[in-house]
Amino acid sequence: MQIHPARPCGELVWAGLATIAAGLVAQVPTAVGFGAALLAGVLVARTVTQLGVARVRAAGFEMLWSEPERVRRVARGGHVELLAEIRNRDARAVRYGKLRVVAAPDLEVRVQPEAAEVPAQGRLQVRVTVHAPRVGRHGIHGLSLEVLGSPGLFEVPLTFANPQAIEVLPAPYAPILHSARGGRSRMSSPEARSGRVAGDGVELRELREHRPGDPFRRIAWKASARRGKLLVTENEIEERDLVWLLIDASVEGWAGPPGQAPLDVALDEAAAIVGRHLGRGDQVGLGLFGARRLAWLTPDRGPKHALDLMKALAFETGCSDADRSAWDEAQLAQHVFEHLRPLHPDVATHLRSSDLERLARRAEPWLSRAPLRPPPPRAASARERFFRHYLLSYGIQSPPRDTDDRPRAEAELAGALRALGQQRRRPSIVYLWARPPDPLRSATLLRAIESFPKRVTDLRWCSMSESRALPEGSEPRAAIVRDALALRIDLAREIGEAELRRRGVRPAPEGRTLSGANRLVL
């Protein structure tokens, strides 16, 4: 048990020492005795506080969540409230202060009340408000507080390890959280391209004269008998768009404050486009690319496919895989050990984070008790894969690797464009989110754009802005550096968009892709 002195304790100690020093200088035994009594009182208060907290913990001082679900789902930028109870089974009341939530760094968490008193044999309700500025799986690992001793001179920090999880999906998912389930079927035509054209539909379009090549099953025999010549029926078929979304999800896209990084904005825009086209009955496919292909979802429609697209946008762009993570196996083991120690102190006894094999064996039984059930991330070995899976199951995200994946991501995007352009069933619209290509270093991507069949497929380029992710500086020099970097980024963007226009691609204006598409309709 750790015990820390509060500010009044420090003041009393300094007062006692000063009194003793003054008494010795003035040769006043009473002053020396008074100062020594102050110091002795502080030691007694420390012992009383330590014994009192031990008694409270032995009687039962715990925290429980009032929520029936261990995993809550929220849209990016939204808020979710969690209720917890601090229970005191001791016969004396317990005062605490500095209540705080142990949570993932990408979550903004507030808790009330921060300081209060838990009555004897009673409980106190605590309200936790979570703001989620970034998509992904994030964990709330518990509450931490400092118990105040009866004199108020010492504080004892206590941590209640009780994990919860927050799944954050793109912002256009918000209406689905409050919408009714079920309803009429929204099945549409299985074809591509919107509009009504002639085909094997069920709605009559016209009766016309027979032409060479018309099948006999289309001949209207009764109408032909009345008019004395062969007539065939021409029916209508309703067609829909076939839409593809291609996104450059390189790790450097996460650079910036949570909620303002280029990928934060791009994923919201892509989710909005998904909602708009699925609401019209179009088929939508998705491709996510970094140094490799992260996800590839073939075009489909319907509520299940919409949820699969939202999950891919939120979870497949994370940095838990070994080729996207900044943590090596030793750092992963250290984080697993630090998480396991307060959660299960008996398991972490006589265990070091450097003993990787023993740590993996002791942590393995507790993986099944994690609130999340994600698929195992990519890793070089089975042990490293377990460590990554353990952390991800408890909502502990790895920071992105400090590498430049742009050349390989552009090569993947170029391959995807070539594949879509050569498909027998070509898409009608392709949205592509990436930084504008560099004329000197993006030759592969520019060649793929130039050879793409733009007369058949509408290629829409959505530039990912990096200037808004630059941090604000309080000092004048920092502001000057930020403005210079923003000017350089904007200039590179204009040069890249000019190259796109020369190749017949018109970039979408910044923020225009979200207009009229901010709701996900299923």
Description:
By secondary structure, the protein is an alpha/beta fold. The protein has twelve helices and 19 strands. The strands form four sheets. Strands 1, 3, 5, 7, 9 and 10 form a six-stranded mixed beta sheet that branches. Strands 16-15-14-17-18-19 form a six-stranded mixed beta sheet. The chain has a four-stranded antiparallel beta sheet with strand order 2-4-8-6. The longest helix has about 30 residues, at about 30-60. The chain is elongated and about 130 Å long. The model is unreliable at about 185-195 and about 515-520 (pLDDT under 50).
Please provide a brief summary of the model.
With 522 residues, the chain is an alpha/beta fold. The chain has twelve helices and 19 strands. Strand 14, helix 5 and strand 15 form a beta-alpha-beta unit.
Give the distance, in angstroms, between the N- and C-terminal Cα atoms. 54 Å
The biggest sheet, with number of strands, parallel, antiparallel or mixed sense and barrel status, is:
6 strands, mixed
Say what the CATH topology of the largest domain is: Rossmann fold
User: What is the CATH C level class of the largest domain, in words?
Assistant: Alpha Beta
What share of the residues lie within helices?
Answer: 25-40%
Cα-atom radius of gyration: 32 Å
**What characteristic shape results from the CA principal axes?**
elongated
Question: Low-confidence runs (pLDDT<50, min 5 residues)?
Answer: 185-193, 514-522
Residue-averaged pLDDT: 84
| Category by helix and strand content | alpha/beta
* CATH architecture label name of the largest domain: 3-Layer(aba) Sandwich
Q: Helical segment tally?
A: 12
Compute the number of strand runs. 19
* Beta-strand content bin: 25-35%
Number of domains: 5
